[in-house]
Design brief:
With about 250 residues, this protein is an alpha/beta fold. It has eight helices and five strands.
Length: about 250
């Protein structure tokens, strides 16, 4: 025979389900406790309500706690050599790179890009289905293929791709110098963050993308526009590629 406590728990769960539905699934355990206390006129412990909500599979659809991911130990960390010196005297002198998340339909895509600090142009980019090493390595390979005798500084945050030994070896093989942002200092990599913000405001947020192909085409169109047709005051009213052509 069920104990009186178990019988009461079943009644509580029944009431909780009714309240959960009535509130459009927005009640967390704190609000649920207050509601049940008022309705049943009983003293109820919030820990008990929390436990019963888990048993019943009831969960608030708002303010959902983010999953806590265990940080991996970096295999390699570079100094912040760039040190927020975001200007360059010539092309292929200083690069900044990062990855940003985009969405199409109910799925995620990731855009990896490298920006040249001389003129702000995007010299390489890859849109992929996963934020992984191949995405970043492919972006780096596209950029290093443009080099002749240049040995640029390349700056990134401390993402797992950039702190891997393989990435370090690829950078060194190209004769480049690696630089990394300090922990928790997004501003150390501000130029690439600024580009992603501009891309999202001027293109990404203005449309809905149902397929990866639609998103890919939109990114290709915008980056071409950004490099060739988006004039910038700091470049004397020229586009990045026009400014670069004058330097060459």
């Amino acid at each position: 025979m069920p104990s009186p406590r178990e019988i009461q728990n079943k009644e509580l769960i029944k009431e909780m389900k009714a309240l959960h539905e009535k509130a459009d699934e927005t009640f967390g355990y704190r609000q649920m406790t207050l509601q049940l206390k008022r309705k049943l006129e009983k003293k109820l412990n919030h820990k008990r309500i929390y436990r019963l909500m888990k048993v019943a599979g009831l969960r608030s659809v708002i303010r959902v706690k983010k999953k806590q991911y265990k940080r991996s130990t970096p295999q390699h960390v570079a100094e912040n050599i760039l040190n927020r010196q975001f200007t360059a005297e010539k092309p292929y002198e200083k690069w900044v790179t990062d990855v940003t998340e985009l969405k199409y339909g109910q799925k995620k895509a990731y855009l990896s890009a490298i920006r040249d600090l001389y003129d702000g142009s995007i010299i390489s980019y890859v849109l992929g289905h996963a934020n992984n090493n191949p995405l970043v390595f492919q972006t780096l390979a596209q950029a290093t293929a443009l080099l002749n005798d240049e040995c640029p500084l390349i700056h990134s945050d401390r993402g797992f791709q950039y702190t891997s030994k393989v990435y370090k070896h690829k950078v060194e093989a190209a004769g480049m110098t690696q630089s990394m942002s300090r922990v928790g200092r997004c501003i150390d990599n501000a130029p690439i963050e600024s580009f992603f913000g501009t891309l999202k405001c001027e293109k990404y947020y203005l449309h809905t993308y149902k397929t990866f192909e639609e998103l890919s085409k939109a990114m290709e169109e915008y980056i071409y526009f950004y490099n060739h047709e988006r004039y910038q005051k700091r470049l004397n009213g020229l586009s990045p590629m026009e400014y670069r052509a004058k330097a060459v």
